[in-house]
Amino acid sequence: MKAIVQDEYGPPHTLRLGEVPIPAPGAGDVLIRVRAAGVDYGVWHLMTGLPLIGRLGFGLRRPRNRVPGMDVAGVVESVGVKVTAFRPGDEVYGAGTGTYAQFALARPGKLARKPANLSFVEAAAVPVSGVTALQAVGQVTEGEKALIIGAGGGVGSFATQLAAAGGAHVTAVCSTAKADLARSLGAKAVIDYTREPLTGTYDLIVDIAGLRPMAQLRGLLAERGRLVLVGGEGGGRWFGGLSRMLTVRLRAPFTRQRLDAPISLTRTADLDALRDLIESGAVRPAVGRTYLLAEAAAAVGDLAAGNAPGKLVITVD
């Protein structure tokens, strides 16, 4: 089958189109014929091997999994003997392994039935970013003030909608090029970080892959407000943004402000919740750009450069 292959850590050009065997599903696996796959920062981390501590999990010298990709939307090709939740022909979405390929494996607990009102391309934009946003925003109440930093990206576009759907007054922080998108997703106000400082007081701040000082963020937070850090970008080569997330967890017990840096895991229950919101019209994926499978390197490069609004998606024949 055709697949994107990576044999060493490095920049996007280390990703190449190649031929690999179709993976064989184990007893508890689902084999998916991939129709589309989302682009997220997890792929960038696996591609670059950064931060270096991450190589303890995904390979010291080279990627343990040669085929990258997590987000997936497609059709079930076959299932292992222990799988009862899905059967061949089901249209599904979720998180798999090596999804930048014509076929990929996934565990049933990370899949759900695709929203009926979405195309495969739109559905592939949802799983990792949508679940991350769902867990970050959590429960909001009518009239709360929410600040979404990085509102124009994959996670931010979902976080903006989820907070607005919960009744919050959303202020989006993004670049000039992404301001219109943020407004279309429900933001009542937009701060262009290239031109304006962050101001105001908020009940919820979701900082997506940001590098702003903790003191600045807490200064914008209400006395009993909630600050959620998402993503581990930036920082040094060894620990990257993980050190910042660890700092939040260590400080959390000693303040009235609620500080959190959750580790998001894609689960069927969250995918089902997102499907309900999508089918009701409360949330929609914001697909910024699509790429052919052979253009995966360009897609990951555009993600890292922040060149496109919304979520980037790779289509697979």
UniProtKB/TrEMBL annotation:
Residues 10-314 form the Enoyl reductase (ER) domain. It comes from the Bacteria. InterPro entries: ADH-like_N, ER, GroES-like_sf, NAD(P)-bd_dom_sf, YIM1/Zinc_Alcohol_DH_Fams. This is NAD(P)-dependent alcohol dehydrogenase. It comes from Nonomuraea corallina.
